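[Meeting: bench + compute handoff]

Bench side (C.D.) handed over the final construct sequence. Compute side (W.E.) agreed to return the predicted structure before the next meeting so the bench team could plan truncations. Sequence as handed over:
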Amino acid sequence: MPTVASQPSAVRLWGQLSEIARACIDTAFPPLCSACREYNEQHPDLCELCDRRVQITDTPACLTCHTPWLDRGHRLKCCEFPLPLYSYGHYDSPLRELVLDFKFHGMTSLADVLVERLLVVHPELKKELGGSILVPIPLHLSHERIRGYNQAALLAESLARMCDAEVHGSLVWRPEKRRQQAKLSLEQRSTNVTGAFALAEISDAQSARVVIVDDVVTSGATVREVSRTLSSGGWKVSAVVSAASNYLW
């Protein structure tokens, strides 16, 4: 057993060995920016230069009528059935590469990074999501088994921790396997997701606010179909939240 006098030397030695181990790991697996692949001390994330290139979408807009939802900080009434989308940025380089690392390359820690960025752009969500039910877009079981996780569910869990909300990950599910939306034209996407989701639970609590969570919203067909499925079961969908979208208002 080391004496009290020898403990500082042991601590220094452990610290030196830890530094050597970190240096070896960084040499073999250097921390890189998700977009430009240059060395990045903020890994996993974008480097400072790529970060400045992200096109921020700081104005929510309605997925029903494609109308911006704010005018100088004030909400606008857009249509009879508004479905506002809150997104961090435009799904283009460099944000696209960050999302792809998160979605396909197993970098699950980026869920917190993307949510933190989203909440900086839309700080009002911290209050508005409080007490809400977060419903992530489900993957078909076969796809989730291959990937190992559902990226939308990870985002929802991170949002729930930061906004005092609750995740209902099994409220909506996919009973059958369909073609991947990313491989279809915009015209085909709406048809592909029609009837693709099923509801696990009917609600009679009309006051329960539901927020749909996804990683990327492109045509909006998937989130609109999930919203329709939830609404048919008595759930009140108040908004959609995504890390990225193809909408620029």
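W.E. noted at the follow-up: Strands lie at 61-62, 70-71, 74-75, 84-90, 133-136, 166-167, 172-173, 198-199, 209-217, 236-245. C.D. will use this when planning the next construct.
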